[in-house]
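Request: Have a read of the protein record below and say how the chain folds.
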Amino acid sequence: MIRSLFLFIISLSSLYHPTTLQADIIDDLSSYFKAGNSKEIAKSFASTIELIIVDEEDVYSKAQGEQILRDFFVKHPPVKTSIFHKINTNPNYRFGVIILSTAKETFRVSVTMKKINTGFSITELRIEPAKD
């Protein structure tokens, strides 16, 4: 009886993968974008991040990226978000497309994440006007 219980627990633990917890990181980011929470989004930034916001493109530090994103949210207060596309099957890569609606316009947010150490970090964030 104890042996079968032990084998049952072992079989359940084999279903657990640390990456499973981060599989919904795009969902978390979507809620942070809806709230306009640049601080929480920036927590997932890599040490340097390529930011493409509308027509501005450059590589920034984590702190600079957070400030630029905060400025974007001041100019474009979010109203709602929806996840348009998500890739979370690769153990070293995540990608998501979030549709961000603001009071005046709608944006397409593309998030590219790579596995760094034990977690995923945003290496590229692209915010561009959504095409109808």
